[in-house]
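Entry:
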Amino acid sequence: MLEVPRLERGSGLAIYRLLEKHPMGAEEVKCLVAAYEQTLRALGIQDRGDPLAELVARKVFEIGQEGLKQPGQICKLAVKELRIL
């Protein structure tokens, strides 16, 4: 299991807060962070402090926990599900 290093925090604050609470491997962390960033771009969210960024982080994390391991697939599903909201 991998602790999420504090030094890696930055543009994806919401996703890192979630990942800190759920230890996982380095590849899983990279996948979820990439999916989070892709989803934010796809939805046009630039402000990582926006409450919507937190919603995106939770959705990406939820989808990642369901077994999808490709950032592009996670992003596509997250965008689809979030556009319904």
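The first helix runs from residue 13 to 21.
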